[in-house]
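Researcher: Structure for this, please.
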Amino acid sequence: MVWDEDDLRTDDKVGRGWLHVNDFVDRGQLANVPLYKKGYLTVQSVEGNRPSAPRVWPETQKLVFQLSAQNLPDKDDLGTIDPYAEIFQVEGITGKEVKLGRTGTLTDQRSPNWGDRFDFQYNANKNQRLVIKVWDHDNLREDDKGGIAYVDIEDYVRRGQTITVNMSKRGRLTVMRADGLPAVPPTAPTTTTTTTTTTVRSPVTTQSSRVSSQVPPVQSGGQGTSKLRFRLSAYGLDDKDVLGTSDPYVKVYYTDSSTPEKLLGNTEKLQDTESPTWTTVFDFTYESGKSPKLRFLVLDEDDGRRDDELGQVTVDIAEYIQKNEDLSVQLPKGTLNIRRA
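Model: Predicted structure, token format:
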């Protein structure tokens, strides 16, 4: 958590970020962590000989990409935005921004898909990042800021040259490969870890089990069925309690084209946190041909009155599976993360 110190009043919160320690080690103890709100934090080993991250892809290569965005903020009077994006490259911890280019301007598009292509030379030894600034074009006044996104190029390459990140204001931005080749993550050496968790199964039962963090999110169940396993975390949730925090938990509902909505299960309830990581693992079987969906209802537990709603969101399971990556979705305030288990 990054703060701005104030002598005469409460310090201001500048931003916060999360870093998975296994990922930090796998990448040679050098990582760029986007901060919620604006900016990024570089975490680097101070050891004399920093270990090299295992790689099986080229250390230098030309990357060609294009951009799209989802759920950008409303900037115009009619409740929409005319977005364009400027792309900057940064090398090193204190490197200056170097402009790579700018997309065209699209009209009335809160979820634009820019067709412009950009390229730059990737070098694994230069700690590279992309800074992408989205603007709302205005004819009669200065263009409005639509938000900023930060992309760690090493992370982008590791994920097969497709990545989706949160914007600083609202919405999400996707950087995708655009050289005609499929986006396939490189196969790098991995370390399997295990943790003790609580598992929720369908019908809802709870039991203790040990799961691997490397298990794929979907497994075939036979006869047109698949099994989905995931767990949840969140950050930046709303403050609902008198003391300025929340006691959050999540109810997960399931529905499809032939099944009325039913409660799949609840996470455990955590105390006094705006950035919970729930250990509950949801494990259930569904029929992929029936347009299955999950609804996540995030609540703040209150002992003496009705629990407060912190937000809810519905996820199409087919889209989640097709992306084959962890998913972050926006709540009215904060973000809910759906992670494979």
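Researcher: Any notable elements?
Model: The helical segments are 21-26, 153-158, 317-323. Confidence is low (pLDDT under 50) at residues 188-196, 202-216.
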